[in-house]
């Protein structure tokens, strides 16, 4: 089973029309591996702008959404609105949503189910904190987080699982290629046991956590690493090098 390599850029709360316009120009003009699916997660206020400027060969994602189509939910956006802007993906459950904004597992369940029902692809994030890794409970934590997602997925072809050890996000620390491969392999085994062998073989499990042009090639060579969710480096020209990590 060949899984198409997937590289997501999570721009977080960064950029303005000028800097994002320059980044888009760089991406549109770059020579990128045609065998890689690329999706850029733009701030919601710029989704329309980015989709109108970015070459159609690149996908665009919202960084969050709510669990219902519309209503009195000040400050939120719905999958219906995201789709109306021509956007086909959403990032859900990022550790910053979990730990900075206090999103519960229950809310992540509801958001995931509603986004998938609405026809969006979901980049679903999981990952342990430093004290959990040091306490030897990485597997327990990521399996529990994956179960929350799995309980709400009917069509796995619309889901990309992003393993992001929280201790490696924006810290400059990267999980070693071996550490990443070990968790990805265990996640695939969990999916095989708890979902199905077909899903385990086909679902893309991508790595996030201080991925750079310098670390991407060795990470990409790991058997169960099917791509990346890139933070800071996705706002720089080196994002193109990361997209081409397997080229």
TrEMBL record:
Pfam families: TIM. It catalyses: D-glyceraldehyde 3-phosphate = dihydroxyacetone phosphate; dihydroxyacetone phosphate = methylglyoxal + phosphate. Keywords: Gluconeogenesis, Glycolysis, Isomerase, Lyase. Its EC number is 5.3.1.1. InterPro entries: Aldolase_TIM, TIM_sf, TrioseP_Isoase_bac/euk, Triosephosphate_isomerase, Triosephosphate_isomerase_AS. One of its GO terms (biological process) is glycolytic process. Pathway: Carbohydrate biosynthesis; gluconeogenesis; Carbohydrate degradation; glycolysis; D-glyceraldehyde 3-phosphate from glycerone phosphate: step 1/1. GO terms for molecular function: methylglyoxal synthase activity; triose-phosphate isomerase activity. It comes from the Eukaryota. One of its GO terms (cellular component) is cytosol. PANTHER family: TRIOSEPHOSPHATE ISOMERASE, TRIOSEPHOSPHATE ISOMERASE B. Belongs to the triosephosphate isomerase family. Homodimer. It is also responsible for the non-negligible production of methylglyoxal a reactive cytotoxic side-product that modifies and can alter proteins, DNA and lipids. Triosephosphate isomerase is an extremely efficient metabolic enzyme that catalyzes the interconversion between dihydroxyacetone phosphate (DHAP) and D-glyceraldehyde-3-phosphate (G3P) in glycolysis and gluconeogenesis. This is Triosephosphate isomerase. It comes from Periophthalmus magnuspinnatus. The lineage of its organism: Eukaryota, Metazoa, Chordata, Craniata, Vertebrata.
């Amino acid at each position: 089973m060949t899984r198409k390599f997937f590289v997501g850029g999570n721009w977080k709360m960064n950029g303005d029309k000028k800097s994002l316009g320059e980044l888009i120009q760089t991406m549109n003009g770059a020579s990128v591996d045609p065998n890689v699916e690329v999706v850029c997660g733009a701030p919601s206020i710029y989704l329309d702008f980015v989709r109108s400027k970015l070459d159609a060969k690149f996908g665009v994602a919202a960084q969050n959404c709510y669990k219902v189509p519309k209503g009195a939910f000040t400050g939120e956006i719905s999958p219906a609105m995201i789709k109306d802007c021509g956007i086909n993906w959403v990032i859900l459950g990022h550790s910053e949503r979990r730990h900075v904004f206090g999103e519960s597992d229950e809310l992540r369940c509801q958001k995931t189910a509603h986004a998938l029902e609405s026809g969006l692809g979901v980049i679903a994030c999981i990952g342990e904190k430093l004290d959990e890794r040091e306490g030897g409970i990485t597997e327990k934590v990521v399996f529990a987080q994956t179960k929350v997602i799995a309980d709400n997925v009917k069509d796995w072809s619309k889901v990309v699982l992003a393993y992001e050890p929280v201790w490696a996000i924006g810290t400059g620390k990267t999980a070693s290629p071996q550490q990443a491969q070990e968790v990805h392999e265990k996640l695939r085994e969990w999916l095989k046991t708890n979902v199905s062998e077909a899903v385990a073989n086909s679902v893309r499990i991508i790595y996030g956590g201080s991925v750079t042009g310098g670390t991407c090639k060795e990470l990409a060579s790991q058997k169960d690493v099917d791509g990346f969710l890139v933070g800071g480096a996705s706002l720089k020209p080196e994002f193109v090098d990361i997209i081409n990590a397997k080229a």
